[in-house]
Amino acid sequence: MTFQEFYQTIGGDYNEVLARLSSERLVQKFVLKFPLDGSYDLLCSALETGNREEAFRAAHTIKGICQNLGFTPLLTSSSSLAEALRSGEAVDTSALAEQVGEDYRQVITAIQALDV
């Protein structure tokens, strides 16, 4: 799979990301580093232990990375989760967290299918 096909698969805009990062080499570099980022694991751990503050930070980090890399569906779901966690109130975020998980797995699966 090419990087353009990757972005089509995940619902992102390759040209927008390329314009932001200014070179295909940088897009490739950062996309391939994404699975090494520990924010998703931190999010899952924090949600399991009920640490909403840490979960917020992890969701917010994922949101920022996704905004820079153009991972649009994961950006949307992580943003929704971060906003739900921002207040610190005991709001049920399980459906939002599940969506983040689905979107995250889609990105990881697509990255693994890249021709690099």
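[next item in queue]
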Amino acid sequence: MGKESLRNKTFNGVKWGLLDNLANSGISFIVGLVLARMLSPTEFGIIGIITIFINLSVVIIDGGFATALIRKPDATQDDYNTVFHVNILVSVVLIALLCVSANPIASFFDQPLLAYVLPAMSIMLLFNAGSLIQKTILVKQLDFKSQAVVSLVSSVTSGIIGITAAYKGLGVWALAAQQISRQFIMMIGLWIANHWLPALRFSVKSFKELFGFGAKLLAANVINSLYKDMFLAVIGKMYTARDLGYYNRADQFNMIFSNNLGQIVQKVSLSSLSQVQDDSERMRNAFRKLVRYTGLFTFACTFGLAAIAKPLIVTLIGEKWLPSVYLLQIMSLYAAIYPLQQLNLNILNVRKRSDRFLKLEIFKKFLFIPVILVGFFFELQFMIWAAVVYYYIEFFINGWYSFALSGYGTWQQVKDLCPMYVTSILVSVAVWTLTFTNLPYLPMLLLQVFVAIGLYVTVYALFGLPEYSEIKAVCMNKILRR
């Protein structure tokens, strides 16, 4: 594939990937705002506990197969069929385990409703397993447009279902109905969009080949999910479901940019870098560009979000969620580097070093133990501050590994990203000072947003930042063409 073709496909992938995530989580976020006004933090906390087990199960179902298929340039129908049947079988087993474990889990967290809601929501695992191959094929083709359309339909429809259920007074079941229906509609939509149909074929050869690569990723992802979910479990157990509700709501705001950009970067970079993996210089240059573009967006968005956190949360979901403001502001410090983490880890996948990926995750999780311990002895905000320290250490470790495989590591990245990072911090502090005015929350929020946009555009233009200039040129060309 030519350099220009890869560049265009990557830009299109980012564009449609962004739209996909805006549809998938943006609309869900808006629906969440409506539900947050109708439901209590405790009800959101119950769903947060269930999410711990659903997320871990989703990681196990994937088994690293999706990544193995994406980076395999000559994937066959036997490969797709084999993975599809494995995904379905594993999902059925996990659903049975969650149903059997529902009562002990409810007793552990002292939330009787969990015994009923968890088995009901476990059906999402089957819907997820049924859509993994469809989504993988679309990602391999860099076809994020189809995924965006499906996400839009599923998010809007499930949002209407959830809000209607909440209006009817169904409480936590309204949140469950929204998530279940969204996953089901998304599965149906992906099958319609992709037209791939499974056959009753299973290849032991395909399984061994893909699992040989994917098993190490599976182990690494399970370890990562266990530690992330342990973080939530500690909050749910050592504090209250209400505290977990505050944390989850702050995290939902946090994910507007960090997780959405992280997912886009992960999907687009894995596909685009895999296509130039045999040309070290092209891959290094492409990797560096991705890092710089990612930093430009994420630093501005995440630190800007921290600056407007208070008027934003109070305006959108009310003062009963004020404890989430400070939590969100702390989270922004590690949210800023989350997409960069995904980029560095993808180099290991592109270079077929899933063995290093596993070793790296095991090593890093030993470093995460002190973060969990802080949750047992101190207040929630201190636990999140400890997580900030951990994630910056993790960034340096990931960058060191990526340097060995790409020639572009931590210190080069820090040098490239430092001007953007410092600029974003200074602009955000300036915007944050506006919260000390006596303006009502809505006018204050609008003023902060306009000031932030004006400052970023002015500063980037004055310093002649290459990435800003290139993005501006691309956008202008698109506008002129239309």
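[queue empty]
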